[in-house]
Amino acid sequence: QVQLVESGGGLVQAGGSLRLSCVVSGSNFRFIPVAWYRQAPGNQRELVAGISGAGSTNYADSVKGRFAISRDNNENTVYLTMNSLKLEDTAVYYCNRPRGPSPDNAFYAWGQGTLVTVSS
Known about the structure:
- The strands form 2 sheets. This protein has a 6-stranded mixed sheet, with no helix packed on it. It has a 4-stranded antiparallel sheet with strand order 1-3-8-7, with no helix packed on it.
- Helix content is 0%, strand content 47%.
- The protein is mostly beta strands.
- It contains no helices and 10 strands.
């Protein structure tokens, strides 16, 4: 059974940085794509960034140039480095293996997520 454990969130001032971690256990990690998603209060879940097993990346327009997704296959971990954070980045961040373009359609049960709060 695959488990996803997100960590690294916290309270940060606008313009600051954070690095989130997602540990994926119980899967053939190095071959699977993994994505970061976020859900702000009252909003639907959205895709933030994704990385393929080969390391190709894609980003939502709202985070391009500010966020970077990376993976360490030896540690079964995917990272999301977030710079120049904005108030609108405030959300609970989740990781998962995407199943198609819909952010609500993923392979594994969702983890608890990690809360990122950006203050002014």
